[in-house]
Amino acid sequence: MDNIKEKISTKQRVLENAIHLFAVKGYTETSIRELALFVGVKESSIYNHFPSKSAILEFILNEYAEQISSFGQYKLSLLEKNPTAEGILSCMTLIFPEGLEEYYKEELCVILQEQYRNPIVRKFMSEHIINDTEKVFESIISKLKELRIINSDTNSDFWTKTHSSLIYTFSSRFLLGIGDDSPDFSGLDLIGMLRNLYSLMLKTCSQKHNGDRRVASGDRRAISKTV
User: Fold this and answer.
1) Do 138 and 74 contact (CB within 8 A), yes or no?
2) Which of 132, 56, 58 is nearest to 94 (CA)?
3) pTM to 2 decimals?
4) I want to staple 114 with a disulfide (CB 3.0 to 4.6 A). Which of 121, 141, 162, 209 is the partner?
């Protein structure tokens, strides 16, 4: 039993330090030898847990995928009580386990760095981050239509792609070392930009807003006929 615990502990130490080195120095630039020195174990000890450096990267991807799988279990019921920008934000927020926020942020950093150089990571980004996020947002839009908060003919594709572009822009900023919490040129952070996007969608596509606009148009036509 103690040997099993020790193996698990060593594997976790190797993984945590690998994630840190990959995030700070880069996956390609980090060697197994350097990782072993950083962890304080022999290279053979690392190979006992991971047959190759690429195996470590694949483990990181799978672990992150498992963590964000719960992201698909979004809380659409929140919209029924709070169909606002804040309500949408709550549904779209990915919450990591307490105390592991930095761990998963470094994993994300590795993924973002490697998406341009590694086809496996690029595929992972497309399938597990971009596509999954779009599916969640599309479901939120469908729920808002069901609740009659927005019009049934709201262009889901337009708002979903706009949403993805916004997130991708901030992800690129994070990759460049600017930081995902730093303000962009508008003076807002990512949460602020998303909140504004959701508010704009609700205002532009709401039945009340469009209804008022139709009435206003009718009034103008009536005025023009009178004149």
Assistant:
1) no
2) 132
3) 0.68
4) 121
Which among 124, 20, 8, 146 is positioned nearest to 69, based on CA atoms?
124
Alpha-carbon gap, residue 165 to 183, rounded angstroms: 17
CB distance 59 to 50 below 8 Å: yes
pLDDT in tens, 90-127: 888 777 778 888 898 899 889 888 888 889 898 888 88
Nearest to 35 by CA among 61, 59, 15, 62: 15
Where do we find the tokens 């949403």? 163
C-beta contacts of 83-89 below 8 A and 24+ residues apart: 83/144, 83/147, 83/149, 83/202, 84/198, 84/202, 85/195, 85/196, 85/198, 85/199, 85/202, 86/195, 88/140, 88/198, 89/191, 89/194, 89/195, 89/198
- Is residue 22 within 8 Å of 34, Cβ to Cβ? no
